[in-house]
Structures are given as C-alpha cells and as structure tokens.
Design goal:
heterodimer, A: 211 residues, mainly alpha, B: 407 residues, alpha/beta, 6-stranded parallel beta sheet, 4-stranded antiparallel beta sheet, 11 helices
Chain lengths: 211, 407
C-alpha cells in the first residue's frame, strides 16, 4: 500500500471510530464518503452483474429472462406518475413468490426436519444401539428433548402462560436465554477479531509500532 | 566316433534348456492361473431415472454374478463405478454379496452418467457391461414430499376451520405478546415528545420473509402514526424495499384518512453496502434523535451497532428478527424483542382480523402436532432401543417416515 493510500485509510478509519466520542464533522465527512462510494459501487455492480451479465448476454438464449426484464421495466414506470401504479405488479409478484417459496422451505426445515431430528432415544448414542450413552450424552439428549418441547410451549400463542403450561413456557424461555447468552459470547469474540484487525492496521501498517 | 554322436546330443540339450525352462514357467503360470479365484461378472446392469423425484436420483438394478451364492460363493462383494459427462470412471459405492440394486442420490440435472459394476472375488474383479448414457429428469410431482403435503393440508385445513370459526363471530384467544403490546405506547411516546419514529426493516431484500414480516408491521405502525400525526423516517438498503415501504406507508395513511400527510421522503434509499448503511443510520439516530426505533426484519453484524446507538440516544426500541445469532444483541440493547415466530405472528396479532387470526391459530395446531409427536416419538425411541419392544419400534418407524422430507 503506498503512502497516500495508507494515510487515507488511517484517516477514514479514525473518522469512523471518532463516532465513539460523539457525532462530529470528521465522522460526517467519512460517512458521506462511505455512503457515496458504496452506493455508486452498487449501481455499477448491479448493472454489470445483473442487467448486463445475466440479462443482456443471455437474452437470446433464455426467453424467460424477458419476463424479469419486463417486470424491471414496470418498476421504472414509477418515474411517470400517470402509470406509476403499474410498478405494483412486480412488487406483488415478488411478495407472492417469496411467501410461497418460503412457506414450504420453513415448513420443511422448521417443522418436519426438526421434529424428525428430535425423535431420538434418551439413553443411547443412536437408535437401536442399546444403553450405550455416557452421562454427558444422556444430559445432551435430555437438553435437546426438553429444550425443543418447552420452546414449542413458549411459542404457543393460543393458551395463556399459566399453571403447568406457564411453567413449561418459563423453562422454554430459560433454554432460549441460555442459548442466546452462549451465542452472544461467541459472536462478541468474533467481532473482537475485527477490532483487532483494525488496531493491527493502525498500529502496525500505519504507525509501524507492531512489527 | 562316440564323440561324433555325443556332440549333437549335447548341442540339442543346450538348445532345449531355455525352452524347457520356458515350458516349466508356463506350466507353473497356468497352475497359478487355475488356482486364482475368478468370479463371473454381474449381468443385466440397467440404470433408469427415479420416477417422481426432483431429478436428483437414478436407480440401478443388476443380476448378481452366478458365483454369488451364499454361504460360500466366490463373490466377496461389488463395487459400482460411475462416469460423469464422459469423464473417467470413479468408484462411488461398495456392496456386500447378494445386493442387486442401488439408488444414486448424488446426481444432477443436466449431467449425463454411465455406470458399470465389478464383481469382486478373493483375487480379482470382473466388470459388467457399461450402461447406456442417462440424464436424470425432474418430474412435476415429487413423491418424496408427500409427507410434507399431508402436513401442509392438515395445517391449511386447521387455518380454514379457524377462519370460518372467527367469521361466525367466535372470539379466538391469543395470548399477549409484550413487544407488540408496546407498539402503541411507543408511538404515543414519540408523539408526546414531538420527535420522529425511525423504522429499520433490516438489510435484506423483498425475497426475505423477515422483510415482509417487518413491512406488515410497518403498515400497522404507519396507520397509528398517521392517526397521531407523528413523523416517521425509514432509511432502507434495498431499492425494492424502498418502493414497497412507500406503498405500505401510503396505503396506511390513506386508510387513516390522511393521504395529504404522506410524503415519499418518509422512505429513503441509502446504499446496499451493509456498513455504509449502518454509518448513515447511526448518523440519523444521533442527529434526529428519534423517540422510538423499530428494528424489524433480517439483521446481520449491524444489529448490535444499530441497537446500541438507539439505546445511547434514549429511544424506546422494539426489535424483532428470526435470525438466532442476532437476537441476543437485540435482547441486550432493546426494550422489547420479538423472538422469531413472534415476528411472524405480529401481523395477525395487530390486525385482529378473522382471516389472520385463523392463520395464527392454524399455525398453533401445527405446533401442537409437533409437540405431541416429539413426546410420543422420544418415548417410543427410548423404549424401543432399550428393550426392543416391537410396538414401540413401529411407532418410531411411523413417525420418522411421516416426518422425513426428500429434496
């Protein structure tokens, strides 16, 4: 990296970090540069990747691409107020298709596969293996079983969380919170590596204090 | 004289030595050859497309080698080889003796396949004839998804039943969801403080169901905002979400009888770049100081940055996402969090319309079925594995078959 690029990168990095103190002109400048460049970059990327790369190059071979192009054209009609309502058609198509496709995906992964995966013997390492599980495996099996069961109870909306049902729901949210806590710690650690990367750039590449 | 006869005999003997050695070697070779165990190959190897699938299976059948007889046949097993698109043959499976069929589930539409099978004996492998070239095909109906269809029909039937029940005037009970109960209060707070409301629909496009769920809640939120005459601002990172967001808010303002108060400036596109968008939204938060922030949709690494900035300006924050990795950050930094399913239940809960309430109750039927099946299934699997009880085994097999889904 040449000197100018190095100093510019350091200047912009510190500009973004300066937000930790408070909103300031340096941050505003860095923010505007970041947004402007990234928005421009995405316009160019979408043009070359989608319009040119997917449609223009293959328009003769794939007649179905014209359907997408037609919908894209309808979206542009928003710019003409008189016929702007036509842009709702591609939106309706996207919303409808998304709902339909995701319905079955969610149904398969969140219900069918999860139920099948949870049906397992509690004192064994697998189905048909006898009493072969050690203590840790038995605990893990019980956690999966009760965690899934009580989690389902928590997300059951048709019954008030009272009495035995309420206890089940409370255990369910207990399981959820432990899971979230573990996930929180795990993700924070991965974010720390991003911070270390920036500090390494500032003190290593820029200031040369880390060899 | 004696030498005259002996010399040619000697010469003949010398000449014959290599031949005799060669003959002996050949004899010993043939002895080894006959002692090797050679099995006859498998025959009639036929490959056919697996019917009523997604185009990802081919079915192979063959007649086992005539030397494949239990208990002491020559065949020790089989090896199946496959060539993809005219490439070299690679071994893809091994079988024990007596096996005569196989389903290859690792094929793709658009590729062509040729197979042959080796019958293995103690010393050698004998190959069958190669199959014809075949391309897997996708059928209109995927039989592997019949269990999915049955479950979908049960839940859809429940939804229709509950919609009809609600239409007949019966009140359908839905428990309180704290995050959704707080929406009106949060908007009221912004109105009292004279500050705007910030609505962030995540960073995914309209092909993400979480974005759709977020926009559904936006419709309800906008209607209340229009009633209260409060300001709303919605920065987005996808152009289609901008269009859909504008349409949603516009429709809400119209239904509230305030079409004049609507402006396209309420929804603005920032950038598709994840952290560029975050930098802009953070800036908006500290400059505009919204009283209420909604974070409803699909979020990734930006979730904590946004929620923490919202927290630092003292805004009341209602967040919701179905991404488990981001929920902990919302729970830590926001006042109310809609966890997964609660986000999708929001539209029905907020509207209270019979149609939507029926769908919510129908989903609960699905959860109840899952709950019962898991409970019985785990008991059956445990008893079946521990004590080999036939009745329990049949229950376990039934449930695992019903809840299996092919690709």
């Amino acid at each position: 990296m040449d000197h100018f690029s190095l100093w510019l990168a350091a200047f912009l990095t510190l500009g973004i970090i300066s937000f930790l103190y408070k909103d300031n002109p340096w941050y505003k400048l860095t923010e505007a540069i970041f947004i402007g460049i990234s928005a421009g970059y995405w316009v160019v990327t979408l043009y070359w990747d989608n319009f040119y790369g997917k449609f223009w190059v293959n328009k003769g071979e794939e007649p179905t691409l014209w359907i997408g192009a037609f919908f894209g054209f309808l979206m542009l009609l928003r710019l003409i107020p008189k016929v702007g309502w036509l842009s709702r058609w591609p939106l309706a198509f996207i919303v409808g298709a998304t709902s339909g496709l995701w319905l079955m995906n969610y149904f398969a992964s969140n219900i069918m596969v999860q139920v099948q995966a949870t049906i397992m013997p509690l004192f064994s390492t697998g189905y048909g293996t006898g009493f072969d599980a050690d203590f840790a495996t038995i605990v893990a099996n019980f956690v999966i079983f009760f965690g899934t069961l009580t989690g389902l109870v928590y997300f059951f909306f048709s019954k008030e969380h009272k009495g035995a049902f309420g206890v089940g729901a409370k255990i369910g949210i207990f399981f959820l919170m432990i899971t979230f806590g573990a996930s929180f710690g795990y993700t924070v650690m991965s974010r720390m590596s991003l911070l270390i990367g920036r500090i390494d750039f500032l003190f290593g590449d820029w200031l040369g204090m880390i060899q | 004289m004696k030498n005259i006869f002996s010399i040619p005999i000697l010469v003949c003997l010398v000449i014959s030595i290599p031949f005799s050695i060669f003959a002996q070697e050949k004899q010993s070779d043939s002895l080894i050859e006959t002692s090797k165990v050679i099995a006859e190959p498998a025959t009639s190897l036929i490959v056919s497309d697996y019917k009523y699938d997604n185009g990802n299976s081919l079915k192979l059948n063959w007649v086992p080698s005539i030397d494949d007889q239990l208990p002491a046949g020559k065949v020790t097993g089989y090896e199946l080889f496959r060539s993809v698109n005219g490439g070299g043959f690679e071994r893809i499976a091994e079988f024990p003796p007596q096996k005569n069929s196989f389903q290859d589930d690792k094929v793709e539409i658009g590729s062509s396949y040729v197979y042959y099978i080796d019958a293995l004996s103690k010393d050698t492998a004998t190959s069958s004839a190669k199959t014809e070239l075949i391309n897997p095909e996708r059928e209109w109906f995927n039989a592997g998804k019949i269990p999915l269809l049955i479950m979908a029909l049960i839940i859809a039937g429940s939804i229709f039943y509950f919609i009809e029940t609600a239409r007949r005037g019966k009140t359908l009970f839905v428990r309180k969801i704290a995050g959704l109960e707080a929406i009106d209060d949060a908007i009221g707070r912004a109105t009292e403080m004279g500050r705007p409301i910030l609505f962030i629909p995540g960073i995914q496009d309209m092909d993400d169901v979480q974005t759709l769920a977020g926009l559904t809640i936006l419709g309800r939120v906008s209607k209340v905002i229009a009633d209260y005459d409060t300001r709303i601002f919605m920065p987005v990172s996808r152009s289609l979400v901008m269009t859909a967001g504008r349409e949603t808010i516009k429709a809400a303002y119209q239904s509230a009888g305030r079409p004049d108060a609507y402006s396209d400036d309420m929804v603005n596109y920032i950038t598709d770049e994840q952290f560029g968008y975050v930098a802009a939204v953070d800036g908006i938060m500290v400059r505009e100081k919204p009283a209420t922030v909604f974070l409803l949709g699909a979020f990734f690494a930006e979730s904590l940055i946004l929620a923490e900035t919202g927290n630092s300006i003292g805004a009341i924050q209602i967040a919701g996402t179905a991404r488990p990795a981001q929920l902990p950050f919302f729970i830590a930094a926001c006042d109310f969090t809609l966890i997964g399913e609660e986000l999708f239940a929001a539209s029905a809960y907020l509207s209270g319309e019979p149609k939507q309430m029926g769908s919510l109750k129908g989903q609960d039927v699905g959860k109840a079925i899952a709950l019962i099946v898991i409970l019985i299934g785990v008991i059956a699997a445990t008893f079946s594995t521990a004590w080999d009880i036939a009745f329990m085994t049949s229950i376990y097999d039934f449930f695992t078959t019903i809840f299996s889904v092919s690709k």
